[in-house]
Amino acid sequence: MSDNQSLEGLLQLVHGLKRNLHEQIEQLQLDIAPMHVRVLKIISRKPQCTAVDIAGYLNRDKAQVTRLLSTLITQNLIEKHANPQDKRSQYLQLTAAGQAIMDQVTGLDANIYRKMTQDISAKELQDFEQIAQKMNSNLSS
Fold this sequence. Notes:
2 strands; two-stranded antiparallel ribbon
C-alpha cells in the first residue's frame, strides 16, 4: 500500500467517524455544537479539570476555550468551583443536566464503536490501537 493510500484511508476513517458522531449528536437535538460535547467529555473524564486542561487537550487557545465554557455555563451544563491550590483557576464540573447529556452521548459512542468495529477481531483492534498511538506520538514529536 502506498503512502498516499494509507494517508487517504486514515483521512476517510476520521471523516467517517466525525460524520457519524455529528449525525448522532444532531439526532439528540441537544442544542449544542459537537465541540461543546467534546468539552463535556473532557470534564466528565478528568477529575479537577480546569480550562487550561481543556485548552491543552483540544489544542485551542484560552480565548476559544473561554467562549466554549461560557456557553456551557449559560446553558447550565457545567459549573465552576474554587481551586484551593490555585486561586487563579477553577475546577469545572458537570451539572445534573450536563451529566444527563453525557449519559446520552456515552450510549451514542458505544453504538458507533460497535458499528465501527464489527467483524474486526480483538487482536486486530489491539494492533490498530497500538499503531494509532505510535502514529499520534510520531506526529506530536
